[in-house]
TrEMBL record:
It comes from Neobacillus massiliamazoniensis. It is a multi-pass membrane protein. PANTHER family: AUTOPHAGY-RELATED PROTEIN 22 (PTHR23519). The keyword Transmembrane applies. Keywords: Membrane, Transmembrane, Transmembrane helix, Transport. InterPro entries: Atg22-like, ATG22/LtaA_families, MFS_dom, MFS_trans_sf. The keyword Repeat does not apply. This is Permease. SUPFAM superfamilies: MFS general substrate transporter (SSF103473). It is found in: Cell membrane.
Length: 429
């Protein structure tokens, strides 16, 4: 297998670039910073948590609703790069503003955070869709897996620097308050995100596109509704999205609930941070391994392997008792979370028509975002009924079984959407 081209490397480095945002802003530092700001302003802990949830839900819902139409417009010649640049710039500017806004201004911080969520998620729609432009179908598994691996590695560097600053400030070893150290972490995130996106902006261009029409916005709505109307006719695409909805819900729930689950087991916050860091490190090579094995055994086989490992994870979680048990669980998750996400992205990219990739990745984004609803609900309801968090995590096995069964039914090839697009959609504009 030949080395990565300049375009492939540049695309991969965006995973390296935006990973700092994923771990520092959405997971590790900013949530705690916001809670401290809101509580200092007199908000009750439950109120600030509710506002945090509302902000995340609203920003995510807004992007999800707009994703298909933005993607459809982005399929026109020259638009994909413009949309990517706009959302990337929105995300990085408001991430930097988090470092400037006074920490007493909890509402302004929350508004800025919502803008970063929209920028981050919006840019990812077009970033994922650029996969069809930078590489061939035969290399998509490898390139997508390489991206996830680089993301895991890239996330650890600013994470370690930022956490070190915060810990050193807590111990009064450096002349910074904890608040100032957190703001420095936000600035580091924006700088990291911006610096390593430069190759993407310089070297990646839209190769596949739809030609311009007189009224691109109204024409995009027509194209989108035609796609929705006829999508069931393309069995492979429809079944894959359905399978993806279930199994990625399970994957995302395991990730998002892991900290809460660990806390319920009595694991200290320090140990949880160490485990989180170790998971990122271990996940990187395993994402690459999944990509290489997919070239040998095919993508569907490796996706089913990943689903099988998650079934083992859910089963093992039922018997979890100690910190050592949690370490084993975390390493099992690390072995498959990147691989299953990377191969899903590549599998979908091969199914969609290249000139309409943005439109279809808009739908892919919707399935991913709305998949984050069922899993947490299933865990919460089961845990409440059984009074056992372990049982809640075990209940996720249902999602993986359903997703795996549907994936088995996905045909290896898809009906040629290009023919439908030209005759049924463009001819009606």
């Amino acid at each position: 297998m030949k080395k990565l081209s300049k375009q492939e490397n540049s695309w991969v480095f965006y995973d390296w670039a935006n990973s700092a945002y994923s771990i520092l802003i959405t997971t590790a530092v900013f949530p705690l910073y916001f809670k401290a700001s809101a509580n200092a302003a007199g908000l009750a802990a439950t109120t600030s948590t509710a506002y945090w949830g509302y902000a995340n839900s609203f920003a995510t819902l807004l992007v999800s609703i707009c994703a298909p139409i933005l993607g459809t417009i982005g399929d026109y010649k020259g638009f994909k790069k413009r949309f990517f640049t706009f959302f990337f710039a929105l995300g990085i500017v408001f991430t930097f503003l988090l470092a400037i806004v006074p920490n007493q201004q909890w509402l302004l911080l929350l508004i800025c955070y919502m803008a970063t969520v929209i920028g981050f998620a919006g840019a990812n729609i077009f970033y994922d869709a650029f996969l069809v432009d930078v590489t061939s179908e035969e290399r998509m598994n490898r390139i997508s897996s390489h991206g996830f691996a680089m993301g895991y590695i890239g996330s650890t560097i600013p994470f370690v620097i930022s956490i070190a600053l915060i810990i050193l400030s807590q111990q009064h070893i450096i002349p910074l308050s904890v608040s100032a150290a957190s703001q420095a972490a936000f600035a580091i995130t924006a700088l990291w995100w911006g610096l390593f996106t430069i190759p993407m902006l310089k070297n990646v261009e839209q190769k596949y596109y739809v030609e311009h029409v007189p009224n691109p916005v109204s024409s995009s709505f027509k194209r989108m509704f035609q796609t929705i109307k006829h999508i069931k006719a393309y069995r492979a695409l429809f079944l894959f999205l359905l399978a993806y909805f279930f199994y990625i819900d399970g994957v995302d729930t395991v990730i998002s609930m892991s900290t809460v689950y660990g806390t319920d087991l009595g694991i200290s916050s320090t140990n949880l941070l160490i485990i989180l860091f170790a998971t990122q490190v271990v996940a990187a090579p395993f994402a690459m391994i999944y990509g290489k094995l997919a070239e040998k055994f095919n993508s569907k086989t490796m996706l089913l392997v990943g689903i099988g490992i998650y079934i083992v994870i859910c089963s093992y979680a039922y018997f979890l008792k100690t910190t050592f048990d949690f370490w084993i669980l975390a390493m099992l998750v690390a072995s498959s979370q990147g691989g299953i996400q990377a191969l899903s992205r590549a599998y979908f990219a091969r199914l969609v028509p290249k000139e309409n990739s943005n439109e279809f990745f808009g739908f892919y984004n919707i399935f991913y975002k709305f998949a984050a609803i069922l899993g947490p609900l299933l865990v919460g309801v089961t845990a409440q009924i059984t009074h056992n968090t372990n049982s809640g995590v075990f209940s996720l096995i249902i999602l993986f079984i359903i997703g795996g069964v549907i994936l088995l039914r996905v045909p290896e090839t898809n009906t040629p959407l290009q023919t439908f697009k030209k005759e049924d959609v463009q001819g009606k504009m």
